[in-house]
Design goal:
The protein has a domain of 115 residues: Cadherins (Immunoglobulin-like, Sandwich). By secondary structure, the protein is mainly beta. InterPro entries: Cadherin-like_dom, Cadherin-like_sf, Cadherin_CS.
């Protein structure tokens, strides 16, 4: 994974390019370079979490703590603006005003297809004239990158080619080795 940040002055938009083994995403997020300590922001600029690839719907992936929230937490908006391949994840603002990421479509999560998902998450609260979406004018907002790593579940377990054999005895394999066989000599090969 490569993350490149460009244009970090407050006059220019910040461009974040995320590259994984399969794809790259470029997002231009205006106004993210605000260094004012009193504005809404995430506690960390990046974090990572590991979840099982067989996580169920609504599985809690991560709670991203938000600092300097407005008094009314229901006016805090959390958005996943990049890296959410096939909408595998969903984000909510919880009662405490923090961003809560959960699994939406678990059948999309497959470690053999993609081991990591790098989510670009924003938080903010809207201007009084806007409708509350990032593109319509957030008063102040911040971003963080969350790397979700999938732990492997043995969903591709080895199996015997002859499952129709009826008894356990018929499915037993035996091998014979010479008493003086060298190390790592193949005893039985099951295909």
């Amino acid at each position: 994974m490569t993350v490149v940040k460009k244009a970090t002055t407050t006059q220019l938009p910040e461009v974040i390019t995320m590259t994984t083994g399969q794809s790259s995403t470029t997002d231009e997020l205006s106004g993210l370079t605000n260094n004012d300590e009193s504005t809404i922001k995430f506690s960390h600029k990046s974090s990572s979490v590991t979840i099982p690839e067989d996580a169920d719907v609504d599985y809690l992936v991560q709670i991203l703590p938000v600092e300097n929230k407005p008094p009314k937490h229901d006016s805090v908006y959390c958005n996943i603006v990049g890296g959410n391949v096939q909408d595998a994840f969903v984000i909510y603002t919880n009662a405490a005003g923090n961003c809560e990421i959960r699994v939406r479509y678990p059948n999309i999560l497959d470690r053999e297809t993609s081991e990591n998902h790098i989510l670009n998450v924003t938080v903010g609260f809207p201007d009084s004239q806007s409708s509350g979406t990032v593109t319509s004018g957030m008063h102040a907002y911040d971003y963080t990158l969350l790397t979700v790593t999938l732990s492997d579940v043995n969903d591709n377990a080895p199996r015997f080619l002859y499952p129709d054999l009826e008894s356990e005895r018929q499915r037993t394999y035996f091998g014979v080795l010479d008493l003086h066989a060298k190390e790592f000599t193949t005893a039985v090969k099951v295909k």
